[in-house]
Amino acid sequence: MYDCIIVGSGPTGGTTGYHLAKKGHSVLILDKADLPRYKPCGGGVSSVIQEWFDFDFSPAISLTTNQVYCTWEHEKTIAVNTKNYPIWMVRRDIFDYFLVQQAVKQGAILQDKTEVTDIEFKSDKWIVKTSNQEFSGRYLIAADGAKGTMAKRLGFKKLKKLVSGALEVEIPSHNQSNDTYFEFGFVQHGYAWNFPKADGFSMGAGVFGLQRKAQSYHKIIANYASLFNLTLDNASEHGHPISLWNGDQKLHTDNALLAGEAACVVDPFTAEGIRPSIFSGLKASEAIHNALSGDINALEKYTEVMTQEWGKEMIWAQRLSQIFYRFPQLGYQVMEKNPVSASTMLKIFSGKLSYSQVAQKGINLLTKSFFSYG
Ligand SMILES: Cc1cc2nc3c(=O)[nH]c(=O)nc-3n(C[C@H](O)[C@H](O)[C@H](O)COP(=O)(O)OP(=O)(O)OC[C@H]3O[C@@H](n4cnc5c(N)ncnc54)[C@H](O)[C@@H]3O)c2cc1C
Fold first, then answer.
1. Ligand 1 atom closest to the CA of 243, numbered from 1
2. Which of 207, 218, 223, 279 has a C-alpha 20 to 30 A away from that of 352?
């Protein structure tokens, strides 16, 4: 019997597996995919995550960006230098597999091509069923991402989340640039991105506001790519849902936790999911370790920690999102008039500043501008 079974080997599963195995616990990580697997994603990761691990992520980084540009219809550029707050650009197949391999080096067992099809809580342990095998574990972590079914299987009937969709396009190219772009004028109530990789670009589009409007992401991205002299001729396209944070909620049940996107931790303003998933994976590993060490309230405390340390921030991100994406053009004008707001966002992304310290000021600026426009 394992101390902990983790379903999913993305950033959440890799993080939880690494920290639990490092503390000497027996860990089984199951993934239905044939690893390394592709995950539709821009692959922009705040380098602050390095602080949460004692190994070097360099082999998993495609490049580090120098400069971020925000634009409105490819004009009205706001430039932010990222020298003090590096952002990594990663290929998710490489990054996720590298991370989970570090867990394996610490003694975790990784089994891919193994889909969890059912679970059962029996005599204080979880029986985890796959198509041809059964495993048992004292604790269980659902790290199965936005499309996962584990939360439902664990009895979480209706999670608080705002489901968004995004399209990501991988464009292979001889790339000389480290520059990163966010474009707010082409997508209604969302943004498009152009993230550089050592061997090409990840471009994409998604809607992150409450308002939903039918629009062709493919057309938007094709047009956006042409502005960088790129075409989608040799590109691969991948659509995927995103579970944005939409309120605090219970993330624990009998000997089990929800973590990462399965726990709907994605920032509802920026749609950043990797750092939040890794953060929740870290906190989940601490909770399971404490539970295995005899703390009977450890899992409940995980929900409290996520509320205190993540939910407290996300409530501000949600307020900003609701106001910014409702009237994005006015929102962008406010950003242009206050270019420091873009570098403030970068500091938040880097974990060096919290939303709660600055968001009220941003909301006041946006509200004032909307009233003066109206
Ligand atoms: C288009 C797009 C662009 C994005 N860009 C960014 C970005 O630039 N930066 C950023 O920070 N975030 C980004 N995100 C969000 C980010 O990709 C996710 O939040 C992150 O991958 C969540 O990590 P996770 O480990 O929780 O889940 P995942 O990475 O989704 O991993 C879940 C794993 O669980 C496995 N699994 C699922 N069900 C089962 C099962 N029943 N049995 C066994 N295994 C199972 C899957 O195969 C998968 O490997 C983006 C999302 C999208 C859709």
1. 19
2. 207
